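<instruction>
Derive C-alpha cells from the sequence
<data>
Labelled lines for chain and fold:
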Amino acid sequence: MARERKPSDPQARAIFEIHRRYIEVMEQRLSMVEEQTRVNYVAVMTSLTDKLAVPGKPLSEVVREIMAEAGPILFQMMQS
C-alpha cells in the first residue's frame, strides 16, 4: 500500500488536509445522492481531473473550461 505523503509547506498541507476531508465527506454522502446526480458528479470530476493532468495547462484555463461544462448541470440541480 502506498504511504501518504504529507507536505511540509503549511499551505500545501492545508490543501492536502481539505482534500482528504472532502473525500471522507463525499464517501459518506454518496448513499444519499440520486443516481443522476452521481452520473453528473462523475462526469464533472472526471473532466476536471483530466484537465488538471495536462502539463502546463494554466489553472485559469482549467477553471474556465470546467465552469462552462459544469454550469448547466449546476443550474439544472438548483432548479430541481
Remarks:
- Residues 3 and 20 are 14 Å apart (CA to CA).
- The mean pLDDT is 90.
- The chain has one domain: 10-79.
- Residues 10-79 form one domain.
